[in-house]
C-alpha cells in the first residue's frame, strides 16, 4: 500500500474544491487552477507553467487539501497518469468532467450574479486568466452555485499567488515529519510530528488554523516578523498567555460549525423556515448562545491584550486589537438580540428557550403552562398524603414516597415503590395501575389524566410559539455569518500564536527568535537542536546541540560525512525543520538563528522503496533527485541524505559527486549533503562554495568499539565505520571479525592502487617539467644576442629547432 502524504485530519473538516485545467502548447504545460472555499465563498485563481513532475500542483494539493478535484483529461496519457498518481497519494477524490463544464462563454454574467457588489469592479482583470477562468466555470456548474442562495452576491475573487508560500513536496513532508501520516500512524502511533509539537491550541478553529499555517509557510518577511512580535509578547508575559489559553480560549466553541449552520439556514426556502427539522446541521437557540458566549470571551481577550504597552504595541494593534475591536462592535446588535430574546437564566439549567418576556402571547402561554404544572404537583401531594394515611401516617424516610415522572403517552405518571402496592390497590377506583416494574409501580388518577390533557394542549401551543419566535431570532442571527467568519479568523490566529509561545517557553532548552532576511546570504544557527527529538522525554536532558554556518558565496554546499548512526540525518533534518519553523513565525530551538527566506524545501532523505508499484529504491531516488535538479532555484533549501546506496559503490559515488557539483555550481542554493562516500570531501578543494563537516566518533581500536559523540566538527571523516555499527547491532562475532578483516584488506588494495596511480601521475609530471626545462635552455641560447642583427641571425640559423620547440610547447 502506498503512503499517503496528507495529514490525518479526521477531526479537521475542509470545504475546498479545486478545478485543474491543463493546456499544452509547443511542449510547454500551461496550467489554470481555481480554488473555491465553500465556507467563505472565495474563488482563488492562478496560472503558471508546470513541469513534467507536476511539483507545483503537488504542493498546492498538499497545502489546500481539497475535498474534490475537478479535472479535464488532456491529450497526454503520461501527464494524466502522473496527475492521477499524485491525487491517489494525496487521497483526493477525482471528478473527471467533460469539456462542457469548462466552457467560459458566460463567465461575465455568472460573476455579476455571484460576486459581492464591492468585488464586481475588480473581476475584469481576472478575465485575462483564460485557462483559470475555464476552471472557475467548471466549479460554478459542478456546485450549481447560480442556484445557491448562500452564494449569490456573496462570493469574492482573488489571486492565488503560488510564490507567497514555501513549496513543500511529498518527500519533504515525509522526511521532516511535518504531518501525521494515516498509513504510517497505523504502524506507529507514537510518531511525533511538527504539527503535534506545535499544537497546544485550545480550540478546534485554532487547530485548523495551525494546520493551514504549517501547510503554508510564508515568504513575506513583514508577516513573519509580525507573527514573531506577537509570539514574543505572549512568551514574555506568561500570565497573560495563561489567562487567554486557560480562562478564555477553552470557552470558545467551534465557530466554523456555527458558520456552516448559519449558511445552511440562510439558504432555506421561506416555507422551510417556518418549521424546525431535527437535524444535526439545523441551527438552534443553543448555537446562538454559543456564539454569544464566544463574543463575550472575545471582549475579555481584547481587554487582556489591550493592557500591553511594550515595543510591539503597533503590531498588536494592526493585526489583532483594531480588527477585533471592530468585529466586537459589529456584534452589538446581536448581543442585544440574544439578551432580549433568550432566557439566559434557563441556559444555566441547559434549557435553551425564548424568554417569555419577549412576547405577550408566549408569556401568557408560559404562565398557563406553569399554572397547570403547579396543579399537577399539588395533586401529587394530595395522593402522597392519602397513601401515607393508609400506611398509618408512617413515613420511613425523608424521601418522597410518590414521584412525578414524565411519560411519552400519558405526559405524567405517579411512581411508587413496589412495597406500597397494597395501599394503592386498596383504592382501585381512584388509583389506576399503568405498569409494574421490578421495583416500582406506575399509576395515575382521573384528575391527573385531565390535568395532563390540558397541560399537553397548552404545551403544544407554547412549543409552536417558541419555534416561530426562535426561527425569527435565528433568521436575524444568521445574517451575521460573515462577521462570524472574521471573528473565527482572529480568534484562531490568537490561539495559534499562544500555542507557539507556549511551546517556545515550556521547552527544557531555550527557544530564540530567529532573524529572517529576504535575499539573505547567511544561514547560521548556534546550539541548534532537533525540535521533535528534543521533545521526547528520554532525550530532553542529553540531546547534543550543534552549530551551522553557511553562506551563499563560499559555503553553500555543506558535505557531512561520518559513521552510520552518528547523527548526519538528524543534523540535516533539524536544520530544515528550524528553517520551516522560522517561516511559520515561531521561535526556534537554538541560542541564535539567522536565516534567509526560502522559496521551497526539497528533500531526498531515506529509502522510499515502493516495489509494490514496480519502482525500486534506486529508481525512486533518481526520480526525486531529478525533480530537485529541474525545479530547485537559488532560494531553495535542499537536503540530501545517503544518495547512491541502491547501486554499485563507484556508480553511487559518481552520481553523488556529479549531483553535488551541479547543485554547487549551477543551482547555487543552500544544500546539506549527508553521505557515506568520504571521497566527496574532495569537492571542497575544487570549489570555494563547498565545505566539509563530519560527525565525531571515538574509536577504541583494541576493543574495536565505537562511541558516538553526535557532535558536528569541521573537516571530513575518512571512514564510515559500518562494521562498528554492525557490531552494535550484535551480529555474530565471527561475522564481525571477518568483516573487519575483509574491509582492511580492501582498504589496503584501494590505497595501494590510489598511491600507485598518484605516483605515476607524479612521475609523468616530473618528466614534463624536465622536458620543459630543456626547452627553456634551448630558447635561452637561441635568443641570446648583443644586438638586433645577431638576434635575427640566430633565429634564421635555428629556425627548424625553434619551430619544433614551439609546436611541442
TrEMBL record:
Alphabetical list of Pfam families matching this protein: MutS_III, MutS_V
GO molecular function, one term: ATP-dependent DNA damage sensor activity
One Gene Ontology term, aspect cellular component: MutSalpha complex
Subcellular location: Nucleus
Domain DNA mismatch repair proteins mutS family: 636-652
Superkingdom of source: Eukaryota
SUPFAM superfamilies reported in the protein's UniProt record: DNA repair protein MutS, domain III, P-loop containing nucleoside triphosphate hydrolases
Keywords assigned by UniProt, alphabetized: ATP-binding, DNA damage, DNA repair, DNA-binding, Nucleotide-binding, Nucleus
InterPro entries cross-referenced by the UniProt entry: DNA_mismatch_repair_Msh2 (IPR011184), DNA_mismatch_repair_MutS_C (IPR000432), DNA_mismatch_repair_MutS_core (IPR007696), DNA_mismatch_repair_MutS_sf (IPR036187), Msh2_ATP-bd (IPR032642), MutS (IPR045076), MutS_con_dom_sf (IPR036678), P-loop_NTPase (IPR027417)
Chief localisation class: nucleus
Biological processes per GO annotation: maintenance of DNA repeat elements; mismatch repair; mitotic recombination
Stretches of the chain forming a coiled coil according to its record: none
Similarity annotation: Belongs to the DNA mismatch repair MutS family.
Protein name: DNA mismatch repair protein MSH2, putative
Annotated organism of origin: Plasmodium gallinaceum
Amino acid at each position: 500500500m502506498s503512503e499517503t502524504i496528507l495529514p490525518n485530519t479526521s477531526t479537521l473538516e475542509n470545504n475546498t474544491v479545486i478545478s485543474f485545467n491543463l493546456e499544452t502548447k509547443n511542449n510547454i504545460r500551461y496550467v489554470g487552477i481555481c480554488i473555491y472555499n465553500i465556507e467563505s465563498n472565495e474563488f482563488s485563481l492562478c496560472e503558471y507553467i508546470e513541469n513534467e513532475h507536476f511539483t507545483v500542483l503537488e504542493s498546492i494539493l498538499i497545502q489546500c487539501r481539497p475535498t474534490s478535484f475537478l479535472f479535464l483529461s488532456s491529450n497526454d496519457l503520461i501527464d494524466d497518469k502522473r496527475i492521477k498518481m499524485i491525487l491517489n497519494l494525496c487521497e483526493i477524490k477525482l471528478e473527471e468532467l467533460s469539456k462542457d463544464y469548462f466552457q467560459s462563454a458566460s463567465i461575465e454574467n455568472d460573476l455579476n450574479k455571484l460576486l459581492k457588489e464591492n468585488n464586481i469592479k475588480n473581476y475584469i482583470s481576472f478575465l485575462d486568466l483564460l485557462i483559470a477562468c475555464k476552471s472557475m466555470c467548471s466549479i460554478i456548474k459542478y456546485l450549481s452555485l447560480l442556484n445557491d442562495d448562500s452564494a449569490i452576491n456573496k462570493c469574492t475573487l482573488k489571486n492565488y499567488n503560488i510564490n507567497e508560500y514555501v513549496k513543500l513536496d511529498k518527500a519533504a513532508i515525509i522526511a521532516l515529519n511535518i504531518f501525521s501520516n494515516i498509513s504510517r500512524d497505523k504502524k506507529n502511533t507514537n510518531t511525533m510530528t511538527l504539527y503535534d509539537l506545535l499544537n497546544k491550541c485550545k480550540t478546534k478553529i485554532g487547530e485548523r488554523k495551525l494546520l493551514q499555517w504549517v501547510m503554508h509557510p510564508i515568504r513575506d518577511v513583514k508577516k513573519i516578523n509580525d507573527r514573531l512580535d506577537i509570539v514574543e509578547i505572549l512568551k514574555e508575559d506568561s500570565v497573560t498567555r495563561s489567562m487567554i489559553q486557560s480562562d478564555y480560549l477553552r470557552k470558545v466553541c467551534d465557530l466554523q460549525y456555527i458558520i456552516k449552520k448559519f449558511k445552511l439556514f440562510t439558504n432555506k426556502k421561506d416555507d422551510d423556515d417556518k418549521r424546525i427539522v431535527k437535524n444535526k446541521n439545523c441551527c438552534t437557540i443553543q448555537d446562538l448562545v454559543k456564539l454569544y458566549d464566544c463574543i463575550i470571551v472575545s471582549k475579555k481577550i481584547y481587554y487582556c491584550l489591550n493592557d500591553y504597552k511594550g515595543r510591539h504595541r503597533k503590531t498588536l494593534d494592526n493585526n489583532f486589537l483594531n480588527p477585533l475591536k471592530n468585529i466586537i462592535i459589529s456584534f452589538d446588535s446581536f448581543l442585544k438580540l440574544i439578551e432580549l430574546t433568550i432566557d439566559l437564566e434557563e441556559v444555566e439549567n441547559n434549557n435553551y428557550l425564548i424568554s417569555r418576556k419577549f412576547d405577550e402571547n408566549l408569556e401568557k402561554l408560559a404562565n398557563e403552562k406553569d399554572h397547570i404544572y403547579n396543579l399537577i404537583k399539588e395533586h401529587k401531594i394530595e395522593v402522597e398524603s392519602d397513601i401515607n394515611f393508609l400506611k398509618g401516617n408512617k413515613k420511613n424516610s425523608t424521601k418522597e414516597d410518590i414521584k412525578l415522572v414524565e411519560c411519552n403517552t400519558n405526559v405524567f405518571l405517579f411512581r411508587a415503590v413496589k412495597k406500597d402496592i397494597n395501599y394503592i390497590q386498596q383504592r382501585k377506583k381512584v388509583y389506576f395501575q399503568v405498569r409494574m416494574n421490578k421495583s416500582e409501580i406506575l399509576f395515575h388518577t382521573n384528575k391527573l389524566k385531565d390535568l395532563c390533557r390540558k397541560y399537553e394542549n397548552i404545551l403544544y401551543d407554547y412549543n409552536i410559539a417558541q419555534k416561530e419566535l426562535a426561527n425569527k431570532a435565528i433568521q436575524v442571527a444568521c445574517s451575521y455569518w460573515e462577521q462570524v467568519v472574521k471573528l473565527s479568523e482572529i480568534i484562531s490566529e490568537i490561539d495559534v500564536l499562544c500555542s507557539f509561545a507556549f511551546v517556545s517557553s515550556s521547552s527544557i532548552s531555550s527557544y530564540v527568535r530567529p532573524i529572517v532576511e529576504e535575499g539573505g546570504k547567511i544561514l547560521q544557527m548556534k546550539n541548534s537542536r532537533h525540535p521533535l527529538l528534543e521533545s521526547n522525554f528520554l532525550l530532553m536532558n542529553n540531546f547534543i546541540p550543534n552549530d551551522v554556518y553557511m553562506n551563499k558565496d563560499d559555503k553553500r554546499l555543506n558535505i557531512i560525512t561520518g559513521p552510520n548512526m552518528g547523527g548526519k540525518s538528524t543534523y540535516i533534518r533539524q536544520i530544515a525543520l528550524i528553517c520551516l519553523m522560522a517561516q511559520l513565525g515561531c521561535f526556534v530551538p537554538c541560542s541564535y538563528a539567522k536565516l534567509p527566506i526560502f522559496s521551497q524545501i526539497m528533500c531526498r532523505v531515506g529509502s522510499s522503496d515502493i516495489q509494490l508499484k514496480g519502482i525500486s529504491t534506486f529508481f525512486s531516488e533518481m526520480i526525486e533527485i531529478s525533480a530537485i535538479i529541474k525545479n530547485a532555484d537559488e532560494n531553495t533549501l535542499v537536503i540530501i541524505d545517503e544518495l547512491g546506496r541502491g547501486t554499485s559503490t563507484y556508480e553511487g559515488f559518481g552520481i553523488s559527486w556529479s549531483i553535488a557539483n551541479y547543485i554547487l555550481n549551477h543551482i547555487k542554493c543552500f544544500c546539506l549533503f549527508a553521505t557515506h562516500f568520504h571521497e566527496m570531501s574532495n569537492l571542497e578543494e575544487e570549489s570555494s562554495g563547498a565545505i566539509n563537516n563530519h560527525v565525531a566518533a571515538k574509536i577504541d581500536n583494541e576493543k574495536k568499539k565505537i562511541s558516538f559523540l553526535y557532535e558536528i566538527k569541521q573537516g571530513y571523516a575518512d571512514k564510515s565505520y559500518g562494521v562498528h555499527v554492525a557490531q552494535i547491532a550484535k551480529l555474530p562475532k565471527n561475522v564481525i571479525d571477518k568483516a573487519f578483516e575483509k574491509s582492511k584488506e580492501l582498504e589496503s588494495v584501494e590505497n595501494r592502487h590510489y598511491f600507485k596511480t598518484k605516483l605515476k601521475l607524479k612521475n609523468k609530471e616530473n618528466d614534463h617539467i624536465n622536458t620543459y626545462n630543456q626547452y627553456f635552455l634551448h630558447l635561452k641560447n637561441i635568443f641570446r644576442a648583443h644586438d638586433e642583427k645577431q638576434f635575427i641571425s640566430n633565429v634564421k640559423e635555428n629556425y627548424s629547432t625553434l619551430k619544433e620547440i614551439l609546436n611541442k610547447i
